[in-house]
């Protein structure tokens, strides 16, 4: 059997609360103008029977259903181990694709044989909000710009390049069992760029993803405390110059000041949690960094 052009590695801890989202993603894949792909579904469920959800799509899409212990980076690596495509992508189970996404990515790689990766951005077509603070310029990524040009659901790579760096760092991301419960989608492109691989960023390549308006309540502040240390940790782990690290660490400090001045105290607490988390993570990353 001929290997597909794309392997879409879909990792999920699905439940009955995520059925509609996965069905939306799979339906969007059925509408792709480029149909040369496989879907590797990496199932991390203990109880929910994902095969029932996948059954209506099995004769319409090339789906490989495998299982993995919990852990987002771990399960992505497990999916890559069985994937056969020339290019890898990592759609979230609640994202979905416009019909021309894969054909655009295929055309990019055909026209840019020296590029190892292509990144787009994640955005909500209903709210108009982006998943993160993305750069507005088309350009080749550097290790300094990776944070404004990377989100896992909009990352596409040549399979050889991603294997060259050993895949995702399993000590990072949700379910890793460490303090670093995020930023695996920053870490991977940074390591690729550090090895000399070229990654292009195109903000017009949009992957749809829910982005509700932010409410600075206790749950949002708790997420900032939980996730922000990973960001600082990467700055320390990868030995970013102090000027870059200070700029990244200082952004939430500016948010604290501006929010306090405008009387938005919930938002100020959010930025303060992010500042403390990033600073603590950065110091930990610096301590663990192996000297050059």
UniProtKB/TrEMBL annotation:
| Key word Transferase present | yes
- Please name the Pfam families in this protein's record: Glycos_transf_2
User: Which CDD domains does the UniProt entry name for this protein?
Assistant: Glyco_tranf_GTA_type
Q: Name one GO molecular function term.
A: transferase activity
Q: Would I find Transferase among this entry's keywords? A: yes
Start and end residues of each Glycosyltransferase 2-like domain: 19-159
Keywords attached to this entry? Transferase
What is the protein name for this chain?
Glycosyltransferase, GT2 family
Question: Which species expresses this protein natively?
Answer: Cognatiyoonia koreensis
